[in-house]
Amino acid sequence: MAPDIPGNPPPNAVPDKSFLLIASEADVMIDDGVVFKAFIFNGTTPGPLIVVREGEVVEIIIKNVGGFTHGLSIHAANTQTSKFVGNIAPGSEGRLVFTADFPGVYMYHCAPGGHGILTYTLAGMYGMIVVEPKKDSYLLERTLGREPDIKVYLIQHEVYLNGRDFFDGKAAYVMFNGKVFRYVTEPIHARPCDYIRFYFLNVGPNHVASFHAVGGIWEYVYQGGNPANMAMGLQTVTVGPTDSYVIEWRVPDEGNFLIVSHAFGTQAIKGAVGIIASSSNASVQNVIYP
Amino acid sequence: MAPDIPGNPPPNAVPDKSFLLIASEADVMIDDGVVFKAFIFNGTTPGPLIVVREGEVVEIIIKNVGGFTHGLSIHAANTQTSKFVGNIAPGSEGRLVFTADFPGVYMYHCAPGGHGILTYTLAGMYGMIVVEPKKDSYLLERTLGREPDIKVYLIQHEVYLNGRDFFDGKAAYVMFNGKVFRYVTEPIHARPCDYIRFYFLNVGPNHVASFHAVGGIWEYVYQGGNPANMAMGLQTVTVGPTDSYVIEWRVPDEGNFLIVSHAFGTQAIKGAVGIIASSSNASVQNVIYP
Amino acid sequence: MAPDIPGNPPPNAVPDKSFLLIASEADVMIDDGVVFKAFIFNGTTPGPLIVVREGEVVEIIIKNVGGFTHGLSIHAANTQTSKFVGNIAPGSEGRLVFTADFPGVYMYHCAPGGHGILTYTLAGMYGMIVVEPKKDSYLLERTLGREPDIKVYLIQHEVYLNGRDFFDGKAAYVMFNGKVFRYVTEPIHARPCDYIRFYFLNVGPNHVASFHAVGGIWEYVYQGGNPANMAMGLQTVTVGPTDSYVIEWRVPDEGNFLIVSHAFGTQAIKGAVGIIASSSNASVQNVIYP
């Protein structure tokens, strides 16, 4: 191991944080009457949100309680991972330790080795891990002198009817956080002036997302979620599979603001639409989890 | 309303500029013998170009003289829009006022609410609005000390044969500014050394464009058209649906320079090709409108 | 010609470097038992790597020894090219001279004029030309005070079964450097701490690549390969057709690190996967050619 390369854990490091991912299989409802025979982490697709802070030593335990071989690829780790968690047989477990040296918004997903890496993602076995940068790193937070009012951790992901459609890039459903049109059915509540930070991750596995709000211009965006990669004043961000953005935006007024992947035919109309419902006396949930 | 958030109009503001968009339906010729049963603004698809200056208070009136419900989403506005122009019944009209606080190149499109937002774009009901930044904001303009010789407002857009192809992302035609191979049939004339500024907008609704010139390297590009987001020396820009770029380039010599979306199979061969025809004694049109 | 525009050659310039491209047609093996009836430069698809240095005057001779009309579009050239090498009949040749004023990673491809420009790329007739910037231009090279240990020139490209699939964007094979799963069969060897520089070019002609390493975070990336366009700490880069990146990364440890286009269904599973095989006593090849 190369100790001076960022990402590697120090020898015999004691983890600052530890997380347990339990791999298995289950039927998951992604819409009324629509059952997805999914591969899952901790009972859901997407799997649980993991949040750590830049510089922390992170331990991930993966246990396979399912009937198939599983594994893990964790994009926040710049260190050897395949050797430790790349192939976990049913009934077995693996352990990975890394240092979260790169701030950003990352995908993790099942990676049992070989072609399984590619098709297990098709099966819904993925989630988001966020490495929070050192305090006050994002510009709007520095300018306003406060944390966001609402943090929205938003995963865009696709479900296919069969392998042929997966090869051809023809998703049947495209979702935000696990359900078709989820935030149309259950809008995200906000108040005028609320400072929202989106942690937007497109896990794909195929489509290029274009994340936009009707009535909104993203004030600041950060490619990969890294504060060093800022652009400003954008109507959308173009986000390939496993690409991500942190987006800062304040709600300008009352009323509904649609959030949508602006690829209308291949994505939005298949479920990648939601609503930010703004009113002055809204009861606000401060964190929206995948 | 939150007065300190950029984009909201001041109370009782008198508009600096006002625009009228008339929504209806019509048959439009997009190629010899090819009729597109389109939804349109002001008689054409794409609709009229709107240009304002950063900081101006802008009024948009939309009148529906057609037989279907129409509406408006205007990406240059960071303010509540759906409430005012989101759903305009036949015979009705709506009015939106906003402050153009974010410089850039934006899409506007019909947004009658619900699934119509997605499918009306399929029907050709969109256009470009440009918010010009404060004077001398783009680098080549500052360096040369003069305005561009030619401003090319260029919309890339797609037409589908049916809803199934729209879902599957299989466009039948991909065009620059309303006609298949338009600027092959009627080239854009220029002279060597001419300073061209492209306002390139991909309205999609599905494909990711890759805008390139044969014999050209883009000297400076600005994501979203915002002067703050500059990159330099690029053979192409990758532009998702409703993403945009301002591009600065000088014509290096005489002869033809093809402009093209370099996604050759899914886009260029379906019509997204044009010609910059350069000769020293060319008669030049200073603005190319959509 | 406009002498003060970067890219044009000076009058009567003596080339610093000269390259010969021989255009023809041949059957090429892209996998065991898979024959691709290709159009080729210098006997292979992709064609030969061309490397020049920023500021050099470059001469390209193209000879057509095949049975079809060929030609050349060379994206590193900001000068009139179509007139000189745009259409080369069988048995003929052409000559282009330009100054390599824009550092970066570029595509070249056959461009015989008309629709052939689009379909000859389908036929495999393309390659990479790199314009190396002035010394020490990339950040990791400056920081470490040395050249990369391994330069990987990596072209992602697609093969289609027929024109219909080409229009529809449904590739049959997606490859790195000419063979399906090439670097799975013949891994790229490295040692822990090795400083790798990828010159990644997506020639398409259709798909948007997402280039990622399992167990790796790209330390620095440069859009188009231009040192001025840096971003840092990214799990992937989203790369449209003819877009490119220079990527700097150090191998964190021993073991296998997969490189992959993270568009799993449309690209990776069709061949766009490779392995960086790291071990302390590896015998390393310092340059990986397309």
Question: Could you please describe the fold and organization of this structure?
Answer:
Chains A, B, C: Its cofactor is Cu(+); Cu(2+). Chains A, B, C: Its EC number is 1.7.2.1. Chains A, B, C: Keywords: Copper, Metal-binding, Oxidoreductase, Repeat. Chains A, B, C: InterPro entries: Cu-oxidase-like_N, Cupredoxin, NO2-reductase_Cu. Chains A, B, C: This is Copper-containing nitrite reductase. The structure is a homotrimer of 290-residue chains. By secondary structure, chain A is mainly β. Chain A has 2 domains: 116 residues, Cupredoxins -  blue copper proteins (Immunoglobulin-like), CATH 2.60.40.420; 150 residues, Cupredoxins -  blue copper proteins (Immunoglobulin-like, Sandwich). Helices cover 9% and strands 43% of the residues of chain A. Chain A is built from 5 helices and 20 strands. In chain A, strands 9, 10, 12, 14, 15, 17 and 20 form a 7-stranded mixed sheet that branches. In chain A, strands 11-19-18-13-16 form a 5-stranded mixed sheet. A 4-stranded mixed sheet of chain A has the order 2-1-4-6, with no helix packed on it. In chain A, a hairpin with a 2-residue loop joins strand 1 and strand 2. Chain A is globular. In chain A, 60% of the residues are buried. At the A-B interface, strand 13, strand 15, strand 16 and strand 18 of A face strand 7, helix 2 and helix 4 of B.
Q: What form of chain A results from the Cα inertia axes? A: globular
Query: In oligomeric terms, what are we looking at?
Result: homotrimer
What do we call the CATH topology of the largest domain in chain A? Answer: Immunoglobulin-like
For the record, the CATH architecture of the largest domain in chain A stands as: Sandwich
- Which class of secondary structure composition applies to the elements of chain A? mainly beta
Q: What percentage of the residues of chain A does DSSP assign to strands (E)?
A: 35-45%
Enzyme class (chains A, B, C): oxidoreductase
Binding site for Cu cation (chains A, B, C): 70, 75, 109-110, 125, 262
Protein name (chains A, B, C): Copper-containing nitrite reductase
GO molecular function, one term (chains A, B, C): copper ion binding
